């Protein structure tokens, strides 16, 4: 959920503190809104922090708070054993570092730039060819959430490098290592964003539906959140085991029952002038699951159609 727009000024509500010589130094490459938030958070935690951005003026506010502004990416990389990058894309990162690859030898490069799993694997190979240990990452928050221990930062790649720098990365948010394959963090990022958009869309559709009867979103939302955190989360956990086993006992509510129930949603929305495209899409995938022989199975069997 990275925001790597390089046209915005640094944003952080944390007060800075003097860098402590007892804490490891860190370099941050890229000072868009997200990169600036990363650097500001590391500074506030007491890490000696070196920063670099393609547009030099972007470092001024951080330099005023104690950061060291490097003249070029090579000098920035050479300043710290841990280099955190958050730039436009993978090509921009490799392009910036290409003239300075000698400085990468022995460095741990943590790439928090948004991209695909395949791009992460390509950058990991590139980094390894220049002697760097590589971690790919995904920031599961907006810049305002950087530094909040409740916010997840996903990492994949070199497990030893992650263990070595875990305490430093924890200053940014809860560090979660997903495995040694470099592309896992990007893959989880895409999957989790899909989940987020689906939840947002379902909530907004429900809000529009009850809103047609003059129910405020603020009144509907606590009930929706209780439903999600209670019954829905219980079903998701149960269905995860069914998906892994490839067996979908229809002992709660079968796909056939769900199809009949979604018709109630379609009817209620249509009668109130609320768009029916979203529930119609849900019904379509359920019908495809039924037609594939899963009518008597649980809703988890829909994954066989999605696959």
UniProtKB/TrEMBL annotation:
Residues 26-176 form the 6-phosphogluconate dehydrogenase NADP-binding domain. Residues 182-307 form the NADPH-dependent reductive aminase-like C-terminal domain. InterPro entries: 6PGD_dom2 (IPR013328), 6PGDH_NADP-bd (IPR006115), HIBADH-related (IPR015815), HIBADH-related_NP60_sf (IPR051265), NAD(P)-bd_dom_sf (IPR036291), RedAm-like_C (IPR048666). It comes from the Bacteria. Keywords: Oxidoreductase. Residues 1-23 are annotated as: Disordered. Residues 9-23 have a biased composition (Low complexity). It holds the Pfam family NAD_binding_2. Belongs to the HIBADH-related family. This is NAD(P)-binding domain-containing protein.
